[in-house]
Structures are given as C-alpha cells and as structure tokens.
Amino acid sequence: MPNRSTDPLFQLIKSLEKSEKRNFKLYATRNSSSEELKSVQLFDALDKMDDYDESVLLKKNERIKKQQLSNLKAHLYKQILSSLRLINDESIDIALHEQMDYARILYNKGLYYQSLKILDRLKDQAKIHNQFTYLQQVLFFEKKIEALYITRSMQDRADHLSMESDQVSNSLALVSQLSNLSLQLYSWYIKNGHSRNEEETVAVQQFFTTRLGNKTSECKSFYERLYLYQSYCWNAFIRQDFLQYYRYTQKWVDLFNEAPFMLEIETAHYIKGMHNLMGSHFDLGNHKKLIETIAIFDRFCKSDLVQNNVNNRIQCFVYSTISIFNKHFLEGSFTEGLALIPDIEEKIKAYEIYLDRHRILVFYYKIACLYFGSGNYENAIDYLNKIINWKVDLRTDLQCYSRLLHLIAHFELGNEDILDHLIKSVYRFMARMQNLSVVEEAIFKFIRSSFHVSVRDIKPELEKLLEKLRSLQNNRFETRAFMYLDIISWLESKMENIPVQEVMKRKFEGKRDRHSAMPPSSPDTMRLAAG
Questions:
Q1: Distances (CA, A) of 487 to 196, 490, 504
Q2: Which of 44, 226, 280, 398 meets the CB 3.0–4.6 Å disulfide criterion with 246?
Q3: What pLDDT does 308 receive?
C-alpha cells in the first residue's frame, strides 16, 4: 500500500512548488527573530526528507529541541499558509473575502457609507460569479449597518434588503438540499458500488424521489442545476441506467459550456463531470464518443488553468488515466495498455499523499485487468493481492470481484493446490458481502468441478457454462458481473485456445464494422449515438 505520511506540515511542504518555497523563504526571513530562523531551519529539514520521521529529524537538527518541536511546527504551518495567501489572489472567493475584510475595516472606522459602497460592489461580483454564500454575508452585513445606523442610503432599503435576503436564503437552502442528496448518493456508491438486486434498486430510487420531491422545476441558478444533475447522475449510475447516466453527465458538462467563466471557479466539478461523461461512453460501449471526449479532456488538461494548479493536475491525471484504461478495455488492446503502467506507477508514487484510497483501489483493479487480459496472470495476481490485503471499508463490489479475478488467475496458472482453499475463501467473502449472483455461482461451480477434468473433457463443461452465462447477459441484475469481468470473452478464449484479448479485439472490430455499415435509422446506431 502507498507509504503516505500523515503529518500535516510535512504534506503541506511536499505540496509546494519551487516558486512557493522561494516566496516562503522571503516571507519568513523578513523578521530576524530566533523563532523565525528556527522555522526556516525546520522547513529546510522537512523539505529534504522523503518520509517523515521525527527521530531522524531531531537527530539531524540538534538545534531543534523535542519540547519545542510541536509549537515550532504549528508556527511554521501558519507561516506557510500566510505566505501562500499573499501570492494566491486570483481566486474569486479569495478576492471576495478580501473585499469583505475591507468593508469591515471601514465599518470599524465609522465610515459607514464607504463600507456600503464596497459591499455594493462586492454584491455585484458575487451575483455575477454565482457566489451566493458571499452574497448572504454581504446582505447580513448591510442589514446590520442599516439597523444600527440611519444611513438613508436608499429609499425603501429595508424592504429591498429583506426581499433580497429571502431570495438568497431560498436559493442556498435549495442548493444545500440538492448537494446533500448528491453527496449521499455518491457515498452509497463508494461504499457499495452498483445496486445488486431489485430491493436495493427500489430503495435507492425511493430515497432519490422522496428527497428530490418537486425541486427539479425550482432549479434555475448554476449551482442548483449542477447539484440537481449530479443527483440524477449518481442515482442512474447506481441503478445501472447508463443511458440516463449519460444524459445527465452531458447536462452537467454543458453547464460549463453555457457559463465558461465558471470553469475557473469550479474547475474540480468540471473535471469530475468530464470523467463521468467519458465513463458513460465506456459503459454504453460508444468507442467513437469516448475517443472524442478524451481528446477534448486532454486539451483541457494541458491548459494553464490545470497546469498552474496542483489539485487540478492531480485530478486530470487520475481521470485521464482511467479513461485511457477504459479505451484499451473496449478495444481489447491489453498488451498495448501495459506500456502505460511504468509511468502511471511513477505518478501514483509522486501523488501518493494526495490520492484517496478509492482512486488507488480503482487503479490497482484496472492495472490487474490489463495484465489478466494480456495473459500475464502472475502480475495480475500481484496487483489483486494489493487490493485483497488492504483492509478498507469501501467499494465492497470491487473487493469482491478482485477476489474472483484472483481466483480465476490462479485457475489459469493451474495452481490446483490452493484452488480449493481460494474457492471457499472467496465464496464466503462474497456471500458475507451479499454479492453472490447467479453468474458468480455458476463460475464457482465450474472451477470446482473442473479440477481434475482432462483438456478433452473440459470443453463440454465450458460450452455449458458459456450457454448459461449468455442467457443471463440481458438480466439487469446479472449484468453487474459482466461490467467488472468479461467472463464470456474469457470462456470463448478458453474454447478457442487463444488469448482473451484476441477475442475482445475481434468483437470490437466486428462491432465497429457493423455500426459503420448500418443505415441511419438502425436502432443500434441510434443507441450508440445517444451514448
């Protein structure tokens, strides 16, 4: 698992760019007190370390005493944030916060009219940029001034301010309710993955409709629509309604096309929207749209807006990489995809203190799938072991299918001595997670019964299993298994005694040829166009 230090100061220092480190040195050395100089020494010492180790730090820096370290670290942390605050003044929320500070200073000086003028300008900027939380603060401050001092700055000011406050409060309440709904649905997915049965599907849909109510018609502002579309996205994705998932991810991204200035304000939401849009094309098997959207996203990732921001760069790396993985899965080009792994592993190491456990799990599973699809079962097992041995309480679906793929990889290698133990272990785990479907039951039965079957006699068993699984492909609660593992292609590869990626490449080429030959009115062509 990633060796990530949890020391906040160490993480902050390691996140700094060269220019930010230089700026801190200039900021810290303006004062020449011994405390400031010790802060710089501590900064340099931590900057040189690869991993945080307090005993090593104190041993190499004898002037820093152990009893001083806690206070010195707290002081240094504040210093770094203060230095960063001085050079990060382009963000609209920082700019609005600064103007609010000026208005308060003027108010405290008794210069009420000047304070109100700044608040008026601040209010206009907040409206233009959809920053309603700042707008609420401005209105609250304006009402305070008007209530305590008779400024007579405008006729009917009390009524006007009251009406504005009500409108802003209603909008913020709606945004809060929708963002709560979106977050709760996303949290459900992170913990459980896709719905596993009719009961879960109905429960998720009921949860969604009950909390959404009739709010859809009320959504007018940017943030109201953003969180509305996100809620629809997660609801559809959990229930595996991928067409609706695509429609609302496209609406999500289109919001930024309608208001391009919001790209700079909510870059992370745009990046996540593009990730979901690319994911929806993959889920619908729309290779052409996936390639087009990857190209758009790649151009965006090279823009200054991304390159000049660490968080944006990391998010672009994560989602761009996942989409490239998905492209190789669609094409069946597993061996070609393996060429990406050294660079990806290097990036994971460089970004390890920023990446959450969910993203790392996804990376490991997709890398394992690349190795499995290319026939490199040993390396696939190595990555699957990283997931299996990592005790995490999220993505139970991913943990289940990691164990199933791990079992199949050992079956491919002919490791009969451990297969019996693995079958029992994986079966118990998946049953405990309530993750066993008809597909998985059939796979377990086949592997268990084929231990000592000869190559000549196993073919009829493969045919039986293949026929059974094909009959389940259109069962909406069994398709979940095929999303994580293309077991049918694997079985076909066993039948023909060829690598699984060759089967998937052939299917991909066949689909592409078939769709290019279809007339515009063909239902299948229309489905792909919608995707």
A1: 18, 5, 11
A2: 280
A3: 87
